[in-house]
Amino acid sequence: MLSFNFAAAAGTTQYQSHAGRFHSADISSNWSGYVAKGRFTGVTGSWIVPKVRNSRAVKTDSAWVGIGGVSSADLIQAGTEETTGIAGQPVYQAWVETLPDYAHPISLTIAPGDQVNVEIKQEIPGQWNINFKNLTSGQNFQKRLKYNSSLSSAEWIEEVPTGPEGLMTLDNFKTVRFGGVYAYVGNKKISAAAASAKPVRLGNSKGKIISAPTHLDISAFEVKRMPG
């Protein structure tokens, strides 16, 4: 496994993974948000990049949308990440990941308070388009890639990533609001509610809930960090 360079001020995401780990149907050790099972050809969502306080310890959180990964080993996803304990201040990044590869940073500048929108859509079987927009700055990143997906689920997730040593430490992101959460079935765009998305809470091995989503209001919800 590649070593994780905590000293780097940029490029930290490339050695991290955002695969799901589930204790039960609705409790995960690293995901919180909403997941929908079915057959989906795309996913979209927007969120506000949270501002985190720096700490001497490395802590992190990540928000993203993706296809696959709930009950399959494949997962195509894109999102944003905040990491503390590096170069004296938090590092904010945007990234793309296709399992089993690690996440890789992309050339899109993000800052706390920015509103971002991500759309991942299959153009033809095995060929995908990722459109990542910073709606605040007006910057846009687009990538076409080949990836074999089971199309078995759609996700809108706030999580603690996994590094080479296992699960990292979740920072205090407080609240992340997701909006415009939709999935594609063929070329038809449906809300997360219409896709029968179910909530997933993040809990530790002792059953304590660390973060959890609020009620899904058709195509919007929040994920809240619990105290402690």
Please state the CA-atom Rg, rounded to the nearest Å: 16 Å
Strand segment count: 19
- What is the total domain count? 1
What is the residue-averaged pLDDT? 90
Structural class: mainly beta
* Second rung of CATH, namely the architecture: Sandwich
Shape: globular
Walkthrough of the structure:
By secondary structure, this protein is mainly β. The chain has a single domain, classed as Jelly Rolls. The chain is 0% helix and 49% strand. The strands form 2 sheets. It has a 17-stranded mixed beta sheet that branches. A hairpin with a 5-residue loop joins strand 6 and strand 7. It is globular and about 45 Å long. It starts with 26 loop residues before the first strand and ends with a strand. The N terminus is likely disordered.
Question: Which helices and strands, and how do they pair?
Answer:
Elements: E1 27-28, E2 31-37, E3 42-48, E4 59-67, E5 76-83, E6 91-98, E7 104-105, E8 115-124, E9 127-134, E10 140-146, E11 153-159, E12 162-163, E13 166-167, E14 169-170, E15 175-185, E16 188-191, E17 198-203, E18 209-213, E19 221-225
Short characterization:
The protein has 228 residues and is mostly beta strands.
Give descriptors for this structure.
disordered N terminus, mainly beta, 228 residues, 17-stranded mixed sheet, Jelly Rolls, 0% helix
